[in-house]
Queue: 2 jobs
Job 1
Amino acid sequence: MLELRNANVFYDKAQALHDISLQVDTSNVLALVGRNGAGKSTILKAFMGQVALQEGSRQLNGADITTTSIDACSRMGIAFVPEDRQIFPGLTAHENLLVAGMSHQPGLWTMERVYALFPRLQERSSALGTSLSGGEQQMLAIGRALITNPSYLLLDEPTEGLAPVVVDQIVEAITTISQQGMAVILVEQNFRIPQRLAQHFALIDSGRIVWSGLRAGITDELENMLSGLHG
Ligand SMILES: Nc1ncnc2c1ncn2[C@@H]1O[C@H](COP(=O)(O)OP(=O)(O)OP(=O)(O)O)[C@@H](O)[C@H]1O
Ligand SMILES: [Mg+2]
């Protein structure tokens, strides 16, 4: 289980996260939803160790990892797919996967399995990072994380700006990934996409959890509240 307990995060003097407590476990998808600037990406960065916790703690299977480095977290099985995807533009899709796999233990997720999950990526395996479409880049970014064989996969707005047919492919892939045992934290702007695959939800606003619960607890009122927050 990966957990934040009462986490407070600041950027200089501005407090970005207030008392955030969240946890995710094997085969579970936790969705974080909220408007622009709510603090969703900062929560993922707090899980990954990319931002320091001013107060509170981070725990992995009961062990305190509050001050553990990003590299060590990565070796311990936490993988982060950032919103900007960070594909190596001068490498082919295949090379991007090879590089990611090199520094990690082999496991369930091999090159073949990544290509089976995203057949489009195999068709485009010799294309340079720069020539991949947005959807292909997202598949590659997820594939690159999978090939490190993590236990926890953090996805920052993986469907943003993608065509509906590609969104469907990404949703299906995340469902498969979690069914095979991985814990996933999925950030999206609204409930619509996470409702298709997540079990647990947290609505974030102004760096706080303003609601959390199960899918059945998502009411029209809550959705209206979120669209109200979008202005
Ligand atoms: N590196 C930074 N330095 C200073 N302030 C930051 C930094 N990154 C984020 N912030 C601020 O922290 C708050 C939360 O930002 P964050 O990126 O976590 O929100 P978000 O919910 O991911 O938004 P979006 O939907 O736009 O991605 C915002 O007020 C943002 O301006
Ligand atoms: Mg963000």
Note: The helical segments are 40-48, 70-75, 93-102, 111-117, 119-123, 134-146, 164-179, 220-229.
Job 2
Amino acid sequence: MTQTETPPVPDSQSVRQTESVRCVDCGSDSVINRGPCKLTSAIDGLPEYEKQLINDRGAGHLYQCNSCGLGFRFPQVSEAELQALYANMPTRRWKYEQQTNTAWQLANKWLSGVTLADSKKAKLLDVGAFDGIFLKSLGNTWERYAIEPSANACESLEELGVTVIDRFLNPPASEYAELFDVVTLFDVFEHLRQPGHSLSDAVQFLKPGGHLIVSTGNCAHWTWKWLEGDHWYCHPLQHLTFATPSFFSNWAVQNDCRVRQMAPHSHHPGKFSKRFERVLETMVWGGLKSNWLRPVSSLCMRIPGLGYLRHRATGPYAPELADHLFVVLEKGKAPVA
Ligand SMILES: [Zn+2]
């Protein structure tokens, strides 16, 4: 199913205008409450600090800003709490293989077609590089740099010959400003408290005409209309903000950038039969929130193969559906004097 094949939206009694909450990024008070979020119920294997935060903070609500298009969880955990979470994260967490991350495949394809302005080895900075599987896949074609908070992951990056220039994304030190041809952020946007501000920081690392590549969840995808704050992408506490196509379009205009590519993609590849199963799960689970669809959903949950949904505490995990966005933004060139 693609973005254009949008099934009917179930009733959502929780969607209402909210006066007291402002957009975490642009500050607008024109926000919609899309309902309560749920957090993962599988917390047994998580670090103690994370378990404690989950128990203390709860899941918050999912909001959407009418001004900049951003989706966000509110309230959020504090910056200090987030930094402590990432600094202590073991590298086994969120470990992906190159062939199972569709964003990396799209980026590799896009980068292989890039014509660079000069013949010197091009410089690429990966923000949130983790243990460097994407950077490794680039080989020696690129001079590779990283920003990475996990001490554990930094060791792996240095073993690969990657230069780690900072632990967190901040405006660049003078020696790194306008140094890079490409800056990438894979599965990072959703961890940012103010993604619009952070992308503006990221662009400062780029040469004029350089490219910023971002991949993250898209809360305008049809599955969010069915699941809202119970979408699988809301289940991790660290997922704070959620992009939409309009967010990137607005941001590009305000930051002198041009959208070169914006494509929906899935987090993992999946066969048609698996994607069909995920569509069914999403609609059956989402239907439970609607007065008129609930009887149909309850009936469907008696079907062998869907019966397991009766025992779930949170919405279905469906990474094979195209609920992510791959975006390439080109930084504006300085006007000729
Ligand atoms: Zn906003």
Note: Residues 106 and 326 are 8 Å apart (CA to CA).
